[in-house]
Task: structure prediction
Amino acid sequence: MRRLILLRLGMSLLSLVLAAAFVFFVIQLSPVDPVVLALGEGADPRRLEAMRHELGLDRPYVLQFLSWFAGILRGDFGTSFFTHRAVLAMLGERLPVTVSLLVGGGTLAIAAGLAAGFAAGLRPGGWTDRVVTSTVSLALAVPGFWFALMLGLLFAVQLRLLPVAGYVALADGPLLWLRSLVLPSLALALHGTAVIGRHTRGVVVDVLGSPFIEAIRARGTPPGRILRRYVLKNAMVPVLPVIGVQLAIIIATSSVMEKVFVLPGLGTLMVASVISSDFPTLQGAIVVVAAMVILINLAVDLGLGLLDPRVRPQ
Amino acid sequence: MSGAGTAAAGNGPAPARATPGRQVLRHMLAHRATTLALAGIVLMILVALLAPLLAPYDPNYANVRHRHQGPSLLHLLGTDNIGRDTLSRIIYGTRTAVWTSFESVALALVIGVPVGLLVGFRGGWWDRLAMRVTDIFQSIPSLIFAFALIAVLGRGTNQTALAVAIVFAVILMRIARALALREREFLYVDAARVAGMSTATILFREILPNTVGPIVVEAAIMLGSAIMIITMLSFLGLGLDATVVDWGSMLDEARNYQATHPYLALPPGLAIIFAVLMFNFAGDGLRDALADKRSTRAAAPRRRGPRPPAAAAGPGDLPAAEVIAVRGLAVAFPAAEPGRPPLEILSDVGFTLRRGETLGLVGESGSGKSMTALSLLGLVPAPGAITGGEIRFGGRDLVALPEAELAAVRGREIAMIFQDPIAGFSPVHTIGDQLCEPLRIHKGLGEAEARARVVDLLDLVGVAGARERIDDYPHQFSGGMAQRASIAMALSCGPRVLLADEPTTALDVTIQAQVLDLLGDLQKRFDMSVLLITHDLGVVAETCDRVVVMYAGQIVEEGAVGDVLARPRHPYTHALLMAMPRDDVRMARLPTVPGAVPAPWAWPRGCRFMPRCAFARPECGAGPVPFVAGTRCLRAAELDLAVAR
Amino acid sequence: MRGEPLLEVRDLVVAYGRGRALFGGGAGIVAVKGVSFDITVGEGFALVGESGSGKSTIGRAILGLAPVAGGSIRFDGQDIAAFGRRIPLSFRRNVQVVFQDPRSSLNPRRTIRDAIGQVVERHFATSAPATEARVGDLLAKVGLAAYFMHRYPGELSGGQRQRVAIARALATEPRLLICDEPVSALDVSTQSQILNLLADLQRDLGLAYLFISHDLAVVRQVADVVAVMRHGKLVEMGASEDLYRNPTHPYTRMLVSSVPKPDPRGREERRAMRVALRHAANASPAA
Result:
């Protein structure tokens, strides 16, 4: 297990470098010249040149990348083209919102998805299965942001139970924080729940049909014990990676929920920086998102290592 | 021309054959949901093509005097905040959605699939490079990557479609690569290489046709995802040109009037749901049609069949020498198509298992021998069920026993081992944990006691280093060792009966001999009765006292091993014995049995072996043949089937 | 005395799992460790052994499907290992294969006509009607009616599929046919049909066989010469008649004694002998 942890940690760091490099070089392909953007069209070519030199933009791309990435490792994400503030500070303000949404939406999706998947998979063809399967089909076709609008309409506008929009920091009151997260988390969890539920159902059906379950039944193990001890653990092995992918998707789609519920998270920051060609901010935000996803993947890999002896290095 | 069984290989007229493609379409249309989905997709394409004819208004014509109108005859779906006709905008939005989604998925297919197939098939450096690229996409979610691409490409309809296409191409590349890797392992690819086919031929004529199905399924679902992502992007203001009418930006506008005019969000939302639902259903339907027909049939909930009529004699104790007595056992599965009679796969199965004996249950695949063993434990897989007969065990009838009491019999009084010993263990629990289980359930032993007992048992069955190996996982065991461990587990509660279902078929011949010898020793030592299921008459001869021969769901012969193997009374037993290759003499020509074991729906009404029997007479086909005096053959009395040795 | 050698295998070494040291660095597995034998024209030669003994790997090496790490494989005097990845069509014509699992060795999405026809076209550049006629002939050779041409493998029984696989192998008019466990996936009653077919083809076409199997009784029916493998090496080789009558190597003796005989008489004696031989084989240094 120790070898597995070290191996995976190393691979995670490698992934982070690769992801950062990829983002950096893709964005260098942009026809937008940041210096022209800063000084305006038709600015004095010498001033453009001077600024380019000052920002180090006249160096080879590889060197630019290395100094940018070295900066990130020191905690310096550069300066925004648009607000001229430190990118790190901007990201720091936004991160808690995104993390809150991930925790809220992720918890809901995992809990509801697993519960629905197990309930359906244990009795395939039964009425629970039919309800779950058709709900999942429908949920997969409903756009999350439209679902969010409808939730807002019902709970905030009509019933006035929850706030329509806005974010309250945890420090300003846990209850208020929670209230501000309920609707966005519900909307975020919609697809994740459906995907996890659908996959879990299939896995549970497969596990129940596998030869070792037949063998265990033939030994007289009671059904409840088969479920708790054998089906659960065996089913989690293929479900865990799916949960990881869904959490990554939740991070991505929270950008849409941030817009619907007017929440100041990383997503809206990224959208704004795409529109204003604010590349340092965009790159920084994507690196932070990638780091979160890589952490999730690391947790999934280690979880798999705990569950399944076959993935542990010998 | 060699005469080796032209007749054997099947005669009769050649029925017309449908190509797989047509079969798939037929399967798809057999499901109403899939047919509806295909119709829905055609409808969307028509609306997209005919938008200028169908739309009542110019979608961008703003009639400010008609702002925020509800549905009326003039505006069937009402108007928006600047008085544009919502229906017309939905119709033109369909055009945008269909165009952008097909554009991006088509582009992704063209880029991703060939690259994926090639790197998967060739392997090596290109493959590793491609995998590193896809690894990066594991850490950057698609939507976020689309942000970066739009930052580079700029905003606009084609740019958005291109960004989505690139994201999808990477996903398709990974899928195509995995498919190529899977197909590459099949022997038909080796066979094509041995036949001298070029790489291009193998890739495009052999591998591609086998990957088209899964890729088309993926593409259908991607069309839905494309609509979802593109509307999401335009909702965020990153998507399409302001002049293009699309559902996402309609929702963005509706959001601004959410409190006052909530109705505005409804039409574009429902349009997206409809479109995505149609693509998803089409994809799912195609997937089901490609998969085995069996998997589309909904499995019925696990339930025991109608209780068969109680035996006339009522429950009574078995004679002391008999441990299990099966009488008239029948097992049936519901027909694949509704309205058909159920498929009986075991008919009138009856035999006795005596105290301390090894009884061989012999038959070819599909004869019903494994199903017989599973019936003894009440484990007939759903939706099959026992439909008649009785299984006497001690004073009880196992067919009538409630599930809870059956569970107490399983593993404690009747234990079972299976063909594939490694697959019989849960892969994520240690061997020790699993071996302790029956001891803890049935004997109520504590953890330490159970472990100590398991170590003894593993020693007993010849697992070397039992104390260390107890904490190993099943994949760390060889087949032979795993079978020894499963024997140890079966013995742990001191059962009276051991059911061994092809316990050595998956093992090498030397290991088979060792395991069979071990089973023989243990059987004597623990005074167990063993029901040994096998297809190999040699195994029967080496290990069994008596033998029961099964063919096509029936028992055709029962008797002492020496008698049955030297002087079989049923032509099937005789044919099987004669067809067995022998290792003591090389024969110019092996005797053969014409034809093959028929499937359950093709079982003859009379003697089920009749079509393949060398001794058949017309009267053999008249009706079911009864089991009389140890055999199920009308001509048993007149035939002399002695086997020369 | 044996005739002219068709295939000469000398000191063959086959190793897997090399060249991926960069990621994970798995040590190579040497599956075949210096094996030599000859197969003469029209001969039935069998490689016998248990799983993991390397017998199938030798077959794959001869077919160019496994990397040769040492030694030589000469067919008609030409060294196959020297071809590298590109094996000439002329060699392909001469050596063909029938695999164990006919379900996997036939492409499920192609008709029998396509499966066999493409081999005919590749090697003889025939016109479409000529190809079809040739496919019909080949099917007739293996005892299948011509209408099977338009079927898919999924519509055939196991024995019929194996007949198709044999017909495909015969399409190039090979001189050596490698049969890798050709009947072990089949029921006993079908097995003997295929074994008889193989014997007929050998007699009619003068084919040489390399027969790879774990089943000594099956091998007995087809082989003139038998070589016994264990752990990647040959432990004993000889004329089939002698080897079955008087196995000399302890492992061979244990192997022969492990085969169940369909005759209960004398089973106690056989069993005692088995146990004794088992001890002898485990003590033998070559094992």
Observations:
- The two ends of chain B are 33 Å apart (CA to CA).
- The longest strand of chain B covers residues 322-333.
- Strands of chain B lie at 322-333, 343-354, 358-362, 385-393, 396-397, 414-417, 497-501, 529-534, 546-551, 554-560.
